[in-house]
Amino acid sequence: LHLHLLQSLQSQPLEPKTEPINETTMEGVPNLPPHLQGEFMQNLEQMQMKDSLTMYNNLVERCFQTCITSFRSKSLDKHETSCVEHCASRYIKMTQRVGLRFAEHQALQQKRAADAAGAGR
Prior knowledge:
By secondary structure, the protein is mainly α. Helices cover 74% and strands 0% of the residues. The protein has helices at residues 2-10, 23-27, 34-67, 78-119. Helix 1 (2-10) packs across helix 4 (78-119) and helix 3 crosses helix 4 (78-119). The radius of gyration is 20 Å and the shape is elongated. The termini are far apart.
């Protein structure tokens, strides 16, 4: 199953399901001492890797539960292979869409906050 999922994923970009980094948070990174900048970036990379692995594990779990119905053979039959490919494709598209909507929502919230701060001056 993992081999079939990996093959179907190779044709699509796999973007980690991470929350967008707030620009004001990232703007402060250059102001940190060098040793803290490295630590911050290392923690950020670890969080992104963890999120990517979590997304992959969720994908495998969901597609396995949905598509694999028989354990009589050590390889997937045509129906299972097709199901896994479609399941992986739909899952990735869904997570990308959710990520996009979340980023749009965050941008809207930041704009509203900036507008409110500008109106308060």
